[in-house]
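Entry for the shared binder. Reason: the reviewer on the internal report wants the predicted structure included alongside the sequence.
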Amino acid sequence: MKKGFVGIAAFVVAAGITACGGGRPSDVLEKMQAVYSSDRFEDAAQYYTKGTVEAMNELNKIAPKSGKEEGLADRKFMKDAKWTVVDEKIIGDTAEVKVKYTEHPVENMKGFEYAFRMKKEDGRWKIDMEQEMKSAISMIRQMNTAGGMMEKLRSFVK
């Protein structure tokens, strides 16, 4: 009887930790792929840090995406993408998850390795791309001030 109770208690605790996002940082990547595979892109924000979401919103204000770009979303999480976790380092409330793509709809992504920076916020692991987003914002602002270079680039891409 006591062994059964201990087993049930352990299961409940493990399920609670996983449901609250307290599992491994790499678990978030699987959740992101499910979001992008379902075309519910607005659900992705819950898996990014607050700073990343704020920077993405700022980036979208100064460089709005076209419908085609929004449809592409984040290629790292495309529906048929498959990866293996090469390394997962956790240091306190930060982590780095390195993956290697074994299958991907975009041919040149096969074999590609990418390191996701993760941060624990409110007890849940989240993808931290704040630095990358802020760098992109800075670059776009510089391009906008460099004689309308961004507008020229947009018209060239169309």
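Summary line for the report: The chain has one domain: 24-157.
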